[in-house]
Amino acid sequence: MLKIGVLGAGHLGKIHLKLAQESSKYLLVGFYDPDIKASELLSKEMGYHYFNSIESLIDAVDVIDIVTPTLSHFDVAQKAITKGKHVFIEKPITTTIEEANALIALAEKHGVKGQVGHVERFNPAFKAAKEHIVNPMFIETHRLAEFNPRGHRCSRCFRFNDT
């Protein structure tokens, strides 16, 4: 069983924590988030172990589940991969193609696996619609909900020297 840690305990991070805890394939070791008060409350209410730094969480696990603002994805994934940890990164993988390619090369160099959380492809509605799409010439999409800025915290929130 792989030991997993969740990096980020915001809206999506809490979902990842719950699913990791329920999984029979992973042992949830704990989480890190720079919001100390909210993290201590989450730890107390849900029983998740709170780590006081990114580094201590990375050192304690086999897999890091990165659920941080996109601006920090590259830095934290690079740190985890360099230490030989597998990574699951919420979409988008990074802010640039160059950073994404660098993470792919780094994962190959260190012999670890990486995955990006494009989970909507498993949504039953998308799976059902897929068989009806034949040779599309273009695809048009519309956002039906209001923009939610919850995932747009600054990358400074997840620097490695935060404690």
Distinct helical segment count: 6
**SSE pattern:** EHEHHEHEHEH
Report strand order across the widest sheet.
Answer: 2-1-3-4-5
Portion in strands: 15-25%
Brief summary of the model shown:
The protein contains six helices and five strands; from the N terminus they run E-H-E-H-H-E-H-E-H-E-H. By secondary structure, it is of the alpha/beta class.
Give descriptors for this structure:
163 residues, alpha/beta, Rossmann fold, five-stranded parallel beta sheet, 5 strands, 16% strand, globular, disordered C terminus
Give your account of this protein's structure.
The chain is α/β, with parallel strands linked by helices and 163 residues long. It has one domain: 3-Layer(aba) Sandwich (Rossmann fold). Helices cover 39% and strands 16% of the residues. It contains 6 helices and 5 strands, in the order βαβααβαβαβα. A 5-stranded parallel β-sheet has the order 2-1-3-4-5, with helices on both faces. β4, α5 and β5 (114-117) form a beta-alpha-beta unit. α4 packs parallel to α5. It is globular, with a radius of gyration of 17 Å. 28% of the residues are buried.
Topology readout:
Elements: E1 2-7, H1 11-22, E2 26-32, H2 36-46, H3 54-60, E3 63-66, H4 70-82, E4 86-90, H5 97-110, E5 114-117, H6 124-130
Parallel strand pairs: 1-2, 1-3, 3-4, 4-5
Helix pairs in contact: 4-5
